[in-house]
Amino acid sequence: MTATPTSTTIRWEQDETGIVTLVLDDPDQSANTMNQAFRESIAAIADRAEAEKDSIRGIVFTSAKKTFFAGGDLKDMIKVGPEHAQQAFDMGMGIKRALRRIETLGKPVVAAINGAALGGGYEIALACHHRIALDAPGSKIGLPEVTLGLLPAGGGVTRTVRLMGIADALLKVLLQGTQYSPQRALENGLVHEVAATPEEMLAKARAFIETHPESQQPWDVKGYRIPGGTPSNPKFAANLPAFPANLKKQLNGAPFPAPRNILAAAVEGSQVDFETAQVIEARYFTELLTGQTAKNMIQAFFFDLQAVNSGANRPKGIERRKVRKVAVLGAGMMGAGIAYSCARAGIEVVLKDVNADAAARGKAYSEKLLDKALSRGRTTEAKRAELLARITPTADPADLAGCDAVIEAVFEDQALKHKVFQEIQHVVEPDALLCSNTSTLPITLLAEGVERPVDFIGLHFFSPVDKMPLVEIIKGERTGDEALARAFDLVRQINKTPIVVNDSRGFFTSRVIGQFINEGVAMVGEGVEPASVEQAAAQAGYPAKVLSLMDELTLTLPRKIRNETRRAVKESGGTWTPHPADAVIDRLVDDFGRTGRSGGAGFYDYVDGRRAGLWPGLREHFAKPGVHVPFEDMKERMLFSEALDTVRCLEEGVLTSVADANIGSIMGIGFPAWTGGVLQYINGYEGGAGVGKGLPGFVARARELAAAYGERFEPPALLVEKAERGEVFTDE
Ligand code: NAI
C-alpha cells in the first residue's frame, strides 16, 4: 500500500459510493489561486487518484469559497522577470501535467462550478469531462487572460481549440477575454448544464458519473478531429471569420503581444498532438509572463483598478450612503445617459429639462437602449418596464422634492448652471449632494452659485454614458470631505469607476487628452503626411485616430478653451506659450471654415454625416515635401505629450494618486492599454536607441524630443528627481 500523498488547498472527500469530491479551499486566502500550495496540492491529488484508482467511481471538483477558483496569483506573476523564464515554464507544465493525469484517469470527472470560474478556474473545469455551472449572482465564466496581456496556460488554449474549433475558441473565448454569465456560457458551449441551486448542481454531477462510468474527453477518443478543421486544411483559412476591427488593430503593429501569441499558440497547437500543444502553449505564455506588457496590464487592470474602486482615495471614517432619488438637470445627450445609468442601478430619477417634450426625449433615450437590450436577450420585458418606471421626466422644479442628490448636465454655460441650481436648491433635500457634469468650467467658480459650496462637486461623465466606465470626480476649493465621500459612493452605486482629482482647467482627463490631440495636429502643421499621423496613433495603440478625434470634439472647442485659458493665465501674471497646433486649427477654421464633424467638414470630409476621407486640402496647404519625422518619433510624441502633462498634474496637485492617473488615462481618454496607463508607461518605458529603460530612459528620451520638437517635451522636475533617486511612480 502506498502512502497517501497529502494536499493543503484541495480537500479529498470520498463517500461510500466511491465518489470523490475535491473541494478547492485554500486555507490562507479568501479565494483559490494557482499559487505554490495549489501546485503542490494538485500534483499530490493526481498521485493519490492514481494510487487509489480502483476505489474511485468518479471525481467532482467544487469549491468551498464564494468563487470557484480565481486564477493565477497575480502578486507573484507580476514579479516574474526574464531571468525566471525556465522556472515559470516548469511550474506551468507541472499544473498542466497534474490536470492531464486526472483527465485521463479513466474515471468520470465533473466540474461543479459554484461561483466565478475565470482564467485558471475555467481551465480546471475544461480538464473535466462535464461542466455544470451554478446560476449564482455575479458568477462569470471565461478566460480573460488576454486583458492582462497573458494567455491561458493551464491548458486553456489547447482545450478550447479542441472543444469548439480554432475560430470559435479565438473569437468567443481567447482573444476578447469575454466573461460569460452561466446561461450565456451554456449557449456558447463553455459549459454543459446550468443548475439553479447547489443541491441541483451536485445531483447533476452525481447523475453524470452514474451514467458515464468510462468518461473520456472528446479529444481523447480515437479518430477525433478538431471541429472546423485546422490550418493544414485549405478550406480553413477561408472559414476563419474576419477579426473584429479593434483586434485587427492590436494584431497589426500596436505593441500588444498577447493576441499575437494566443493566435500562434492556437494555430500551431492545433496541428500537433495534445501533449506537444501544451508545451507550445507554455512557451508562448512564458514569453508574455516575463515581458513588460503583462506587468503593465496586471498593474493597471488588477492592482490599480482595485485600489481605485475600493476607495483608496475616499476620505476615511465617513459612513457609506446610498442615493435614493436623484435629480438630473438637463435631458440632453449627457443627462439622458446619466438618467439611464442611475435608473439601471435602482435609483429613482427625476429628469428635468426646459419643457415636457425635451424631458420626454431624454427618457426616450433609455427606451431606445432597453429595446436594443431586449432584442438581444440582455434584459426582460419586466426589467425594462421597472427601469423605465423609475425615470420621471418633468419641466416642473417642484417635482424634485425629496431628491438626495442632483446631477446637473445643462448647456456648458456658467450663468445658466448657476441659474438652474438656484432654481432647485430649496426644493431638493436640505443636505442633497450637488454635482455638476461640466467638462470645462472650474468647479470652484460654479460652487459660488450655490448656498452650500461644501456640498458641491464635479462629476465628469464620459460619452456615451451607458458604455463608458469612468467618472472623474472633481473637488473644488470648498468641497467638503463628506461631499467627496458621497460622490464616490454614488459613482460606485451606479457601477462605475471613480477617480478623484483637484480642480484645474480641463481637470485631468480633458487637459491630458488635449496634449495628444495637439501633438497630432502640430505634426500636420510641420508638413507630415496626415494619413501617417493617423497611422502613428493607431500603431501606438490608441483606440481613436487623432485627427478624427479632433473632428468629433469640434475645432472650435479647443479654441474657446485656449482663449479662456490664455486670458486667465495673463490675468494672473503668468506667461502664455502658444502650442504649434494653434495655428493649424486657426487656419482650418478661419481660412477654410472647417470646424469639425458637426459642421460637416474638418480634418476629414463628410458626406451625409459620414466620414469620407482626409480632406485633400491638408496636403495641398500644409504638406512640405522633404519633411521627415521618423515614425517612432511620431508615436512617442503622442505618448510622451500625455505622460509629461500627467507628471505636471501630479506636481500641481491636480492628481494625488498614481492609480487614478493610470486608470483615468486608459478608461477615460483612450491611453493605450498595453502601457498599463500613463504613469506605468513611464515606469515600464523600454527605451530604444541607447536611451535606457524606466524613468532614466524616459527622461533621456524626453530631452531628445525636446531638442528636436520643442520645449514642451522638457521633463518636469518631479520626473527628473524621481529618476535620479531611482524611484518609480507608485502609491505605496
Ligand atoms: P446637450 O446640449 O445635449 O444637452 C443640454 C440639455 O440641457 C438640453 O436638453 C437643454 O434643453 C437642457 N437645458 C438647458 N437649459 C436648461 C434648464 N434651465 N433646465 C433644464 N434643462 C436645461 O448637452 P450635453 O452634451 O448633454 O452636455 C451637457 C453638459 O455635460 C455640459 O456641461 C457639457 O460640457 C458636459 N459634458 C459633455 C460631454 C459630451 O461628450 N457631450 C462629456 C462630459 C461632460
From TrEMBL:
CDD domains: crotonase-like (cd06558). It catalyses: a (3S)-3-hydroxyacyl-CoA + NAD(+) = a 3-oxoacyl-CoA + NADH + H(+). The keyword Transmembrane does not apply. InterPro entries: 3-OHacyl-CoA_DH_NAD-bd, 3HC_DH_C, 6-PGluconate_DH-like_C_sf, ClpP/crotonase-like_dom_sf, Enoyl-CoA_hydra/iso, FA_oxidation_alpha_subunit, NAD(P)-bd_dom_sf. It comes from Streptomyces wuyuanensis. Residues 506-606 form the 3-hydroxyacyl-CoA dehydrogenase C-terminal domain. One of its GO terms (biological process) is fatty acid beta-oxidation. This is 3-hydroxyacyl-CoA dehydrogenase / enoyl-CoA hydratase / 3-hydroxybutyryl-CoA epimerase. Belongs to the 3-hydroxyacyl-CoA dehydrogenase family. Keywords: Fatty acid metabolism, Lipid degradation, Lipid metabolism, Lyase, Multifunctional enzyme, NAD, Oxidoreductase. PANTHER family: TRIFUNCTIONAL ENZYME SUBUNIT ALPHA, TRIFUNCTIONAL ENZYME SUBUNIT ALPHA, MITOCHONDRIAL. Residues 325-503 form the 3-hydroxyacyl-CoA dehydrogenase NAD binding domain. Pfam families: 3HCDH, 3HCDH_N, ECH_1. Pathway: Lipid metabolism; fatty acid beta-oxidation; Lipid metabolism; butanoate metabolism. The keyword Oxidoreductase applies. GO terms for molecular function: enoyl-CoA hydratase activity; long-chain (3S)-3-hydroxyacyl-CoA dehydrogenase (NAD+) activity; NAD+ binding. Transmembrane segments: none annotated.
